[in-house]
Design goal:
There is one protein chain. The chain is of the alpha/beta class. It has two domains: 4-211, Spore Coat Polysaccharide Biosynthesis Protein SpsA, Chain A (Alpha-Beta Complex); 230-282. The protein is 45% helix and 18% strand. It has helices at residues 17-25, 45-51, 66-76, 96-106, 125-134, 147-150, 166-171, 183-193, 214-230, 232-235, 243-257, 261-282, and strands at 4-10, 33-38, 55-58, 81-85, 90-91, 110-118, 140-142, 161-165, 197-207. Strands 1, 2, 3, 4, 5, 6, 7, 8 and 9 form a nine-stranded mixed sheet that branches. The longest helix has 22 residues, at 261-282. The radius of gyration is 19 Å and the shape is globular.
Amino acid sequence: MNMISIVIPTINAGTQFSALLDALDCQTTRPRTILIVDCGSSDDTVEIAKSYGCKVLRIDKNKFDHGTTRNLAMAEVSSEFVVFLTQDAIPADENMIAELIKPMQADSNIAICYGRQLSRPDARTLERFAREFNYPDKSLLKTKNDIKNLGLKTFFCSNSCAAYRRSIFEKHGGFENGVGTNEDMLFAVKAILAGYSVYYAAQAKVYHSHNYRIFDLWLRYFKIGRFFKQYRDVLSIAPLKNEGITFFKAGLRHFAAKKQWGTAIRFCLQTGIKFVAFKLGKL
């Protein structure tokens, strides 16, 4: 019996939306349901979704937030495994769903399994490096025992491409309602502290990257800073482990080894913007 559903929140998904649905249509492991949660699209997103046979749930865009919206979506599907994708995450091959679900089928203790995000062909150099740093080619199982060594990275996962086990999800209250970002991390904290695990499946690949403008980058990291301030009591169970410094040093080594000095300077400036925005968000 097919025990997999796909959930995709959308708003004006644009020209790439058909490519996403085409890629899902070619998967070796087919979902029972594809649910599109549309948050007020004014383009033809809903019409495209219906033409592919997707179920559509429409909500007011003013009521959208990452936690509440995904909780609503979870209530609309009945499968044990629910795969969340974002509208701009395109499966890299026909085995994405199979590779994402395989670890969960083999190990009933895995609450979340998230996939590897590859850079799009048009991704800029700095974005390519960030994706490679955050999404390496080696899979990883993360449990409570990893908190000391990995710190907050123990709870890192991404709903751009992630599968959840319904029974564990419902048992522990689902996502936090009203959360504007990092709803995936908050649930990972609950799951891991309850004794379950989170798995990074490097073979479950999607193309997903962003060429952010400076303002967008600032706003994104300011919001992340706000998130860390709001949930500091929850997140204080694990140290940051100087992840930002590790990322910065790795980037400098990477671009220096290639003698890409101009790129190294841009990397320093971009990292500085992220750092300042994050710190201001935490004030």
